[in-house]
Description:
Layout: E1 6-7, H1 20-28, E2 30-31, E3 38-42, E4 48-54, E5 60-68, E6 77-82, E7 88-94, E8 99-106, E9 111-117, E10 124-132, E11 144-145, E12 152-156, E13 162-168, E14 175-182, E15 191-196, E16 202-208, E17 213-215, E18 219-220, E19 226-233, E20 239-248, E21 259-260, E22 267-271, E23 277-284, E24 288-296, E25 307-313, E26 318-324, E27 329-337, E28 340-347, E29 354-362
Parallel strand pairs: 1-8, 2-4, 11-13, 21-23
Antiparallel strand pairs: 3-10, 4-9, 5-8, 5-10, 6-7, 6-9, 12-20, 13-19, 14-17, 14-18, 14-20, 15-16, 15-19, 22-29, 23-28, 24-27, 24-29, 25-26, 25-28
Amino acid sequence: MVFALVFTMFMPYSVTKASTEFETGKQTASLINYSTSYSGNLAEKNSSVWYCVDSVGYSAFYNFKLKNINIGNNEGISLNVYDSDGAKVGYAKAENSTETDNYGKMEKNQRYYIQAYSKFNCTGDYIFSIIPEDDALDSLTDASKISLSKYYYDSFRLGSDVDYFKFKTLSTTDYYRLTVKNINIGNNYSCFAQIFDSDGAEVTKLGVDSGKEWSTEDIKLGRNKLYTVKFTSYFSCVGDYKFVIKPVADAGSKKSQAVSVKLGKTYKYRINSTGDVDYYKFKLTKSGNYCFSSKDVDISGRNWDDLHMTVYNSSGKQVGTIITYKGKTTSKTHKNLKKGTYYVKISSPYEYSGTYTFRIKKK
């Protein structure tokens, strides 16, 4: 973030035709560098000083820091920004004895021209610099790469700002949670986040009020897949936000991904979203009677049979089912189980989500 006593938004303008003044200025423009301060002087009334700068290899926001040393009063010094065709794409100003931060966006690999002049034909001195902003990239193809479980902080510089981030899912986890904090952007749903798969299909979305931190429900994503997060200001507001994407602990969603469990130990997991199914496997080294128990801790149902625990042998034959109601614990003994590998499938028939526990022990 860049702070100043005076903040002037670098506002976009509609496209205009290249003028004779622009063509003349273009020929005399001095090439300047980023992050370097330049001193200038409007020596005569109706005079202009021209500069040019080449944008970097991606679309990005820039801070045009402009200091009016002693030129006139209101709008003593102004900057017009043009693209290479002479279309006016930005405007900035600074009053006498003030310094302003003026944010604008430049498209990648373009040359831009800057005209310094006084709107009211005043003379005097000024200082300015152009500083690239540390902003997320603004297109789907150029999305900024992020890591899971790490918090990121970013800003909307203009109401039209859009930020894209990309991440890759793990090979061992199916479920993820997106948490967004709207620090100071607008009001209701002013910070809007969407997750898209590699084909551009929306997976989930989340709108967050100013000053609030909200999370999505646990989202099922493909393993070892690329996804993109898009942030926009729903009402074209400016301000700051932060976010994190975290893997959610989950048992395997397929029999081939079953998590190994041990006899006599209690396990606690979640049904992470509607349609989630958890698979476990265990091995019996001796034939005999075994007790299966499950507890519906807080699955969001309506006191029905919200939790089903189904047991299968290695051939896929169903051995039995334990049905548990909300807030209850159910136990059932299966007799004469032969030694070998068995599988447990836990699901909610009404597609609710929530936490459960289970245990398998020898009787």
